[in-house]
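During the no-cost extension, the postdoctoral fellow (Dr. R.K.) reprocessed legacy sequence entries with the updated structure-token encoder. One reprocessed record is reproduced below for audit purposes.
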Amino acid sequence: MANDDRRSVVTPGAEPTPIGEVPPVGVVPAKMHAQVVRQSRYGDPAEAFQPELIDTPPIGPDEVLIAVMAAGVNYNNVWAARGYPVDQVAIRQKRGEPEDFHVGGSDASGIVYAVGDDVSGVEIGQEVVIHPGVWDADDPWIARGKDPMIAPSAKIWGYDTNYGAFGQFARVQAHQVMPKAEHLSWEEAAAPTLVGTTAYRMLHGWAGNTLNEGDLVLVWGGSGGLGTQACQLVKAAGGRAVAVVSDDERGAYAMKYGAIGYINRREFSHWGVPPLVDDAAGQKEWSAGARAFGKKVWEIAGAREDPAIVFEHPGSATIPTSIFLCQPGGMVVICAGTTGFDAMVDLRYHWTRQKRLQGSHGTNDEQAYAYNELVRNRYIDPCVGRTLPFTDIPEAHAVMSRGEDVFGNVTILVGAKEPGSGRV
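Re-encoded structure tokens follow.
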């Protein structure tokens, strides 16, 4: 939406509210506190994020302003802080947006403080969570009835767009707004939506290889925010999740959230790009490692059964093994590349056994709403690993970038004064 289409919702004379507080419902200060990334600070997330007082964003006719009570931390804003692989500030300025900064954060729970003139079904004062799928309503792709998250205009809120969850007020499209689960605190409600809706789309979104009852699913990073959501979704659908983790403590954590067993990846050394096909000795050694890993899957499954779905996000280090192990006609579905973007696929195992390597990104409304109902009906636990103060947003991303935070989801208190508030 063009900037000149947005209308102000600022309450004249309203002063900025301290972190840990919110103004009266409907009162919108002209300025707000935010953790801000600027191009001059790109690099280590611990330095890239800095607290600033900035203008509260105006909203357009189809937009909603949310007072953020709590936010979730996800890997996408590690990338935003680095300015790599995409300089989001530069990209948005090329689109005509004037801001020379990035306020990230793709998970939020909060309260509706203002709605655009064309918005219906969202009320001021409503307690909500936000899903991260954003697109242009007039996109011709969507007008033809196609999946909006594959549309040319599709973006991830709080990564591709500005004014995400790391400010006191967040600007969202009305269709992103979903009812908060009443039994969850603000930080619990803020924790799972991006990873949960991403996992839901990966498992349920690809016709021909959707998750079925009884399916065996290999879940990489089974103790992390994404992996714990995947394990729970697999269990909820009647499938069986095998988690891949880096130690026994993380394996136990994954099993707490639905995995039937786990594999410690540190027991194997065949990761990364395999030797070329003409390297017979190297191929033999790599294949032996991959087969030994596969036998661990069989042991947990209780039969010589390969995964119907491999739930991927590490990328470079693991894709060769994932393709090798996936059952004929099965699917390797990937949503990220946290170990690197340059992945190798041995096509012998891909085309002759008719396997699918499927990219998956974000969520559409149907998938997000379905996932949110599972949360509201208590089928899915948010898996909050740690809850931190607003000042810890930089270090939280730095820790995540180093791969140190792998127990569930990390959440940040913004408008909420203390953990545990917000439950009904």
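Residues 1-5 have pLDDT under 50 and may be disordered. The first helix runs from residue 45 to 48. The remaining legacy entries will be reprocessed before the final report is submitted.
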